[in-house]
Design a protein that fits this description.
The complex is a heterodimer of chains A (343) and B (326).
Chain A: H1 8-21, H2 24-44, E1 53-57, H3 60-67, E2 72-76, H4 79-87, E3 93-98, E4 101-106, H5 111-127, H6 148-178, H7 181-186, H8 192-222, H9 230-251, H10 258-275, H11 290-295, H12 297-311, H13 319-339
Parallel strand pairs in A: 1-2, 1-3
Antiparallel strand pairs in A: 3-4
Helix pairs in contact in A: 1-8, 2-6, 2-8, 3-5, 6-8, 6-9, 6-10, 6-12, 8-9, 9-12, 9-13, 12-13
Chain B: H1 4-10, E1 21-30, E2 33-43, E3 48-52, H2 59-66, E4 74-79, H3 84-94, E5 95-98, H4 110-118, H5 127-133, H6 149-161, E6 167-171, H7 179-194, E7 198-203, H8 206-212, E8 215-220, E9 223-228, H9 230-235, E10 241-247, H10 258-261, E11 266-272, E12 275-280, H11 283-296, E13 301-308, H12 311-319
Parallel strand pairs in B: 3-7, 3-8, 5-6, 6-7
Antiparallel strand pairs in B: 1-2, 1-4, 8-9, 10-12, 10-13, 11-12
Helix pairs in contact in B: 4-5, 6-7
The chains are: A alpha/beta (343), B alpha/beta (326).
C-alpha cells in the first residue's frame, strides 16, 4: 500500500469522487443542465445578424453588379417572374434593365425594401463607375457583453455553483446519516474533520471541471467576454462554492431524512432563485427589500461574477460582495460544526 | 431473579487478568424509557461473550455505550483498561465495531470500502487478507448494491476486522439472514475466536448465543437477569428436558396441572396459548406417568414433544415470556 492509499483523507475524497461519478443524474445536473439552459436562453435572446436582403434583376450584368454589395443577394429572373416574386415577398426589389437606364420596382412602404433600393442603386452606380465625392469608411461595432446571454451566463454560473455545492453536501451527508454509515465511520478512528474536508476537497476538484466546461462552452458558442483577470474569476468561483458548501453543511447538520433535507434546501434556495438576479437584474426589486436582496449570498456571488466577467472589475473593487460571501462561509461553518449530528 | 451484581462477582478472575470489558452500575434513559437499568458486566480477554435478550432489552444501548457512541447517564465503562473520556483516540484504534443496520454506499465496491476503512487505522491487516477472511474474493470488484444480505454482513464484519482489533463488538450480526448465510457467518466468528480475540456479541437468537458464546448474559428490561456458561444457565433450571403438549378441543377441556406436578421428575409447569410446558428431569420415567395422568383426566393429546432445555427455556423460566414475544 503506497502513501497515498494509506491516507484516510485521500481515501475519503476518492470515495466522494467515485460516488459522484457513478451517479449519472448528478453528472447531468452539474455539467449538462447549465449548458442546455445557456443554449436555450442563447437561442431565445440572440441578437439577429444584419439581414441580407433578397433582390432580383432582369440581366446577368445587373445581377453581378448587385451581388457586389454584401448586404444583398441577387438572382436573375424574367420581368414577369420577378413581379410574381415581388408580390409573394420572395424578393424585396426587382431591378429592370431599360434602354434608357435602370428601373427599380419595389414597395416604398416597406423599410427593408427602401433599404434595398438604396443599396441596389449604390451597387449599380458604383459598378458603372461612379466616384464618391467624399471618402467614407465604415467602423463596425458589435458590442459583446451587452447582450442578454452575456448577462445571464454569470447568473447561471452562480446558480450552478449554489446548487451543486448545496445538493452535493446536503444529500450525501444526510444519506450517510440515514443509512447509519456516518455512525459507523464515527465508531472507527477516522478523524472527523477529514470527513467534512473530503467533501470540500472533492467539491473543489469537481468545480474545476464544472466551471471550465460551462464557461468554455459559453465562450466558444456565444463569445461571452472575460474582461477581468481569470485567476480572480477562479478565486470568486472557489469562494462562492465554499460559501454554499458551508450553507449546505448547515442545512444538513441535523436533518435525519432525505425529505427533511430536501425541504430545507428548497426553503433556503427558492428566495435566492427569485431575488438574486440570475435571469434579470436584482435592482428591479423595490428599494425597501434591497438590503435583504444584497445580503443574500447568491446576489453577492452573481454581482461579483458579473463585475469580473462583464466589467473587468478587480477583487479590490468587488470587496463588498466578497466580504458578504466570506461572512456567510465563516458563519455557516462555525454554526454547523457546533450543531452537527454525528449519528 | 437474584441481584445481577452477585452474578458478576462470581465470575471475577482471581488470577488478576485485567478484564477486556468492565461495566459497573451502567444506566441510560431516553426520555421516560429506561434502556439500561444498572448493568454490571465483566468480559475476560479471549472470551466470546453473548448478550442475549428480546428486542428492546437494552442490548444495543449497552453495546453502543461500550463502543463510545452513546454516553451513559451513570456508571463506569472500562475497555482494555482504558476509559472513553480520556483515551477515545486510542480505544477506537484498538476495537472493531459492527453496528446493526449499517448500509455501506451501494455504488462502492467491496475492495474500495475496505481500503477506505483500512486507511483509518494505524496498523491492521492487508485489505487482500481481510477480503479473503470474509470469503468475498469473488465479490472483490462488485458494487455493494449487488451483494446478498449475507455478503453485506460479511463485508461489515471485514470492516470491523481490518484494523486488527483486540476487542470486537458484533451487534446482532445475523439478524435478517437466511439460515445458510447465518451458519456461514458463525463459521467466521469461530475462526475469530480461535485467533484469540475478545468478542462481545448481541443477539436475540438463543441458538446463536449457545453456538458462539463462551459465556452468556441474559438481559431483560435493561438488566442482566442471569449469566454464566450455557451449561450453567441450563443447569440452573434444575431440569434438562422440556415436555410440551396440547390437548384436543382445548377450549372445553381444562387440564388439571396438579397431578402432573406430583409426578416425580416434573419440576414446573406453564401454559402458553394452550401449549403446556413441563420442566422434567428424568424423561424416561416421567413421560409414561404424564401420559397416564392425562389419560386419567379423560383428555386426548393433540400434540406431544420433548426437547433438551435451551437458553430459551431459561429465559422463559426467568421472565414468563419467550424471547420473541416482543
Amino acid at each position: 500500500m503506497n502513501r497515498w492509499e494509506s491516507s484516510s483523507l485521500f481515501q475519503l475524497t476518492s470515495m466522494r469522487f467515485r460516488l459522484f461519478l457513478r451517479e449519472p443524474e448528478a453528472i447531468f445536473w452539474t455539467f449538462l443542465f447549465p449548458i442546455l439552459l445557456a443554449i436555450g436562453l442563447g437561442i431565445a435572446f440572440r441578437n439577429r445578424p444584419a439581414d441580407v436582403l433578397q433582390v432580383g434583376a432582369t440581366t446577368a450584368q445587373l445581377t453581378q453588379a448587385l451581388s457586389g454589395d454584401k448586404g444583398l443577394t441577387a438572382a436573375t429572373m424574367e420581368e414577369a417572374a420577378g413581379t410574381r416574386a415581388l408580390a409573394t415577398g420572395n424578393i424585396l426589389l426587382l431591378a429592370i434593365q431599360r434602354p434608357e437606364g435602370v428601373e427599380y420596382k419595389f414597395d416604398d412602404s416597406n423599410p427593408d425594401a427602401r433599404t434595398a433600393r438604396l443599396l441596389a442603386d449604390r451597387a449599380i452606380q458604383t459598378a458603372a463607375g461612379r466616384q464618391e465625392a467624399v471618402r467614407a469608411d465604415d467602423l463596425l461595432v458589435h458590442e459583446k457583453g451587452a447582450r442578454y446571454i452575456d448577462f445571464v451566463v454569470p447568473g447561471l454560473l452562480g446558480m450552478n455553483l449554489m446548487g451543486s455545492a448545496m445538493w452535493g453536501l446536503g444529500f450525501s451527508i444526510v444519506d450517510a446519516r440515514q443509512k447509519k454509515l456516518l455512525k459507523r465511520m464515527v465508531a472507527s478512528p477516522m478523524p472527523r474533520w477529514q470527513f467534512l474536508a473530503s467533501f470540500l476537497l472533492s467539491r473543489l476538484m469537481l468545480l474545476i471541471i464544472e466551471v471550465a466546461v460551462f464557461l468554455g462552452f459559453s465562450r466558444l458558442a456565444f463569445g461571452v467576454p472575460f474582461r477581468g483577470a481569470l485567476w480572480e474569476l477562479a478565486l470568486l468561483c472557489v469562494l462562492t462554492s465554499l460559501a454554499f458548501s458551508a450553507i449546505g453543511l448547515l442545512v444538513s447538520s441535523r436533518a435525519r431524512t432525505m425529505e427533511a433535507v430536501s425541504g430545507l434546501m428548497n426553503l433556503v434556495m427558492l428566495p435566492m432563485w427569485i431575488l438574486s438576479g440570475i435571469f434579470f437584474s436584482a435592482t428591479r426589486f423595490p428599494a425597501a427589500i434591497q438590503p435583504l436582496v444584497r445580503t443574500l449570498p447568491l446576489t453577492a456571488a452573481i454581482d461579483a461574477l458579473r463585475g469580473n466577467m462583464l466589467q473587468g472589475m478587480s477583487l479590490g473593487q468587488l470587496a463588498a460582495p466578497v466580504a458578504i460571501l466570506m461572512a456567510w462561509a465563516a458563519a455557516a461553518f462555525a454554526v454547523s460544526l457546533r450543531i452537527f449530528r454525528w449519528r | 431473579m437474584t441481584d445481577s451484581r452477585n452474578a458478576a462477582t462470581l465470575t471475577l478472575d482471581p488470577g488478576g487478568n485485567a478484564p477486556s470489558l468492565l461495566l459497573r452500575g451502567l444506566r441510560k434513559t431516553f426520555g421516560d424509557v429506561v434502556a439500561v437499568d444498572g448493568m454490571d458486566l465483566e468480559v475476560k480477554p479471549g472470551e466470546c461473550f453473548g448478550l442475549l435478550g428480546p428486542n428492546g432489552a437494552g442490548k444495543t444501548t449497552t453495546i453502543e455505550i461500550c463502543e463510545g457512541l452513546t454516553e451513559a447517564d451513570a456508571g463506569s465503562v472500562e475497555l482494555l483498561g482504558l476509559d472513553w473520556r480520556t483515551d477515545a483516540g486510542e480505544l477506537r484504534q484498538r476495537i472493531g465495531v459492527q453496528l446493526q443496520e449499517t448500509q455501506f454506499p451501494d455504488k462502492l465496491t467491496v475492495e474500495e470500502t475496505l481500503r477506505l476503512f483500512r486507511s483509518f487505522y494505524r496498523k491492521g491487516i492487508p485489505v487482500d487478507e481481510s477480503i479473503q477472511r470474509a470469503q468475498l474474493e469473488e465479490k472483490r470488484g462488485a458494487r455493494i448494491g449487488t451483494l446478498s444480505g449475507g455478503q453485506k454482513q460479511r463485508l461489515a464484519m471485514a470492516c470491523a476486522l481490518v484494523g486488527d482489533p483486540e476487542l470486537l463488538f458484533l451487534d446482532e450480526p445475523t439478524t435478517g439472514l437466511d439460515p445458510q448465510a447465518r451458519r456461514h457467518l458463525w463459521d467466521l466468528v469461530d475462526q475469530l475466536k480461535q485467533s484469540g480475540r475478545t468478542i462481545i456479541l448481541t443477539t436475540h437468537y438463543m441458538e446463536e448465543a449457545e453456538r458462539l458464546s463462551d459465556r452468556v448474559a441474559i438481559m431483560d428490561h435493561g438488566r442482566v437477569i442471569a449469566q454464566g456458561t450455557t451449561q450453567q444457565l441450563i443447569a440452573s433450571l434444575g431440569a434438562e428436558h422440556v415436555v410440551e403438549f396440547a390437548v384436543a378441543e382445548r377450549e372445553t377441556n381444562e387440564v388439571n396441572v396438579l397431578p402432573l406436578l406430583a409426578i416425580p421428575g416434573v419440576q414446573s409447569s406453564r401454559v402458553d396459548a394452550g401449549l403446556h410446558q413441563l420442566s422434567v428431569v428424568e424423561l424416561h420415567t416421567a413421560v409414561p406417568a404424564i401420559f397416564a395422568a392425562l389419560d386419567g383426566q379423560g383428555l386426548v393429546l393433540s400434540e406431544f414433544r420433548t426437547h433438551s432445555a435451551t437458553l430459551e427455556d431459561v429465559f422463559v423460566h426467568l421472565t414468563g415470556r419467550t424471547l420473541r414475544d416482543e
